Amino acid sequence: MRIVVISIPVQSRGIPDYVKALAKGMASMGHQVDILDAWTEEGFRLPAYNYIAVSAEAVSLFGGKMPEALPKILALGDRLTGKKGAAFLKKNGPFTTKALTNLMRAMEKEGMLVNWSEVILNAPHAESLGKRIGA
What we know:
Layout: E1 2-8, H1 17-27, E2 32-37, E3 51-56, H2 69-76, E4 84-90, H3 96-109, E5 113-120, H4 123-130
Helix pairs in contact: 1-4
């Protein structure tokens, strides 16, 4: 399966270790995996993938607000209606569940079918989650 992992950290500071570990776990299961940085790349290539995994961080510890790069990259990816996807959120505070819900809503707003969501604790946990894709 051709999978893209969209990395949406709070700030544009490169791809976090847990996102690389998530992609590594997926690749170990025989999938072709690419990582896109939402802050530096555009979403026009998204329709070419079979599965879209979004890994994000909440902007603050309270409230569950998503980074402004999330709606921008998803809106650029035309024809996302019906694409299967996963929502992964890095745990960072007491409102993690609310933030994960906001992430899933943003994906579903673009017509995606979110069939998996998880909270990532650290890089080893992310790699183990990646190995469960398609299982």
